[in-house]
Amino acid sequence: MHGNMMFQPLLISNLIEHAEMYHGDTAIISKNTDGSMTQTNWSKIAKNSKRFANVLQSFGLSLSDRVATIAWNNHRHLEAWYAISGSGLICHTINPRLFPEQLIYIINDAHDKVVIFDKTFLPLIVSIKASLPHVEHFICLDHYDAAVIESFPEVKFYDELIATQSDHYVWPQVEENLASSLCYTSGTTGNPKGVLYSHRSTVLHSYAISLPDSLNLSAHDTILPVVPMFHVNAWGTPYAAAMVGCSLVLPGPMLDGVSLVNLIDQYKVTNALGVPTIWQGLLTAAHDLGSRLVSLKRNVVGGAACPPSMITTFRELYQCETIHAWGMTETSPVGAVNQLKAKHFELSEAEQFNLRFSQGRPPFGVTLRISDEEQGMKELQRDGQTAGHLQIKGHWIIDSYFGKNENALTVDGWFDTGDIATLDEDGYLSIRDRSKDLIKSGGEWISSVELENIAIGHPEIDSVAVIAARHAKWDERPVLIAKKSVASQITEADILNYYSDKIAKWQIPDKVIFVDVMPIGGTGKLLKKDLREKFGSVLLDA
Ligand code: AMP
């Protein structure tokens, strides 16, 4: 049939072009690694990203080569992001809190050709660089510094590189399904797995999270993504910010409550986003500093369950609406956001509060279901009561992991999230449990399998299990349950010490509990659920 709409691929470069053209003078505030502040705007960010795209082009990289960033949320990182994805390369954001062996694994698995890092991470990069055979260029996200050269003679400096480049660069019209960024997630067992986002999925996700019933972002806002750019692309906010033309406050390395309260008050932040642990620190600091957080209209809490008391405190003491959201690395991340519907405003305040505690409902573009089994196709009732395996499909949901041939879906094409949940008739999601044995501590994953493998390597330990115990500050912390070998005199301190040179300090279990018998099920499997029930609140009781 004749007559149609024009076709334009959905590209990340469109976002930065739009922000440059229509929101050029909108402020981007950035805290540098040394604590100093930089004030820039979308126009300057766009120009520098084109300069850096010229730098990357001069390296002779090929389409879809991977460029890694190990950096805080700051303006140079934002410029590099748009330059990398915009020019058809893949921006691989890396979590610097990982143990050096894990970083080496991830960088080599991704075949990163360039590693861009904040000065804070210089010692880390220097210590691992000999193990990274594919990396051709290391770039320090800073101005020239002779002290850096001393420990790392071959390093290049971002400011020096872009200073000599033109801000003229024509963004290539790549295919919208081309991969644009890469983020690794902790595997339930074994090594971390890469999740690739595409230009198309990123742009569609940006539309969805900006909607009023979603994270509600607009050109009226000044948003503070406390969630790091290496945690699922700061939940997509740097892309959505360019789309809606809002102002950004990028907090750099200082994520403590006092620093955040000061940023919110000084730069009149209207909407901030982060994991529950961040908000606990912020509420304490606001109280101690006597701040009323006057400008803050909304805050988005996700990555772990938001305690109801937190929602109440923000609302009653600070007139701030807390938006509880659910998502994961494999889902870009937003899969559900808690916003009420018109009919709910007829309910009592208390009933409305109850509704706000759940993880919310899916925005257009994703669909949720609960299923009887992980691989199962039998959909369970949406009655708010029946719990099952939470599964998702949609425009920004994973199909297969990076470098893996097989798809990651159920036979009928849904992604199983590993969460156990209920859905009600309106699609409101309540996360009840997790089927995978991972521990999420302050927004960071710890693999129970990895901790178990280490402990079992101790000659005086017979069998072990690591569970996620609830924790007042970090949401969850690992607790090791161990059965000693006969006649062993080993102590809790011995085991904790045994971990000290094998994993990062923050991953070491908080507690060791010795038992005489481990609960074993009919199929010979260790019953972790029983251990979770018995010892899951041991850290709270303490
Ligand atoms: P990640 O891939 O690191 O983003 O982690 C995703 C997982 O975090 C989900 O599968 C959930 O287990 C958990 N999670 C994320 N958001 C929430 C939330 N609002 N409430 C409870 N658990 C959450």
TrEMBL record:
Residues 17-402 form the AMP-dependent synthetase/ligase domain. Keywords: Fatty acid metabolism, Ligase, Lipid metabolism. InterPro entries: AMP-bd_C (IPR025110), AMP-bd_C_sf (IPR045851), AMP-binding_CS (IPR020845), AMP-dep_synth/lig_dom (IPR000873), ANL_N_sf (IPR042099). Gene3D superfamilies: 3.30.300.30, N-terminal domain of ligase-like (3.40.50.12780). GO terms for molecular function: ligase activity. Residues 450-525 form the AMP-binding enzyme C-terminal domain. One of its GO terms (biological process) is fatty acid metabolic process. PANTHER family: ACYL-ACTIVATING ENZYME (PTHR43859), BUTANOATE--COA LIGASE AAE1-RELATED (PTHR43859:SF4). Belongs to the ATP-dependent AMP-binding enzyme family. This is Long-chain fatty acid--CoA ligase. It comes from Acinetobacter silvestris. The lineage of its organism: Bacteria, Pseudomonadati, Pseudomonadota, Gammaproteobacteria, Moraxellales.
